[in-house]
Amino acid sequence: MIDLGQTGQVFGEHGIGKTATFRAHLAAHHPDTALVVVPAANLTPDDLLANAPVRDPRTGELVLRQLLMSQLMPGQPFVLLIDDSLQAGETIQAQLMQVACNWTLGEHDLRALGCVGVFLTDNESLAETSARRSDLAVLDRMVTLRVTAEDTSWPFALAARFPEWDLKPVFRIRASLDPAIRELLSPRTLEHVLANAREGFPLVWGLPLLGGERLRLTEPGPDGRPGRDRTHEVLDRIAGALGVPNPARIADPVRRVLRAALRRRWAVLLQGPPGCGKTELVRELTREQLGRDPLYFSLPVTNVEDLCAPVPTTEGALHNLLAAGFAGSEPKAIVWDEYNRPKDKAAFAKLMEITQEWSLAGARIEGLRAQIALQNPPYHLGRKLLVARNNIAQASRFTVSLDLDPADVPANEWLIAHYGQDAETVLDWWKYDLDEEGRAWISKRTMERLIKLHRRGLPLKLGTVYLGDGEYAPVPLDGLEDRLAGRRRAGLREIAAELGRWVRRLELAAADCAEGGNDTDLVHQAIANAELSQLRKHRKAVAALVRLLPPKLRASYLAGAGPEHQRFWIELFAALPR
Question: What are the tens digits of pLDDT across the range 89-101?
Answer without folding.
Answer: 777 777 778 888 8
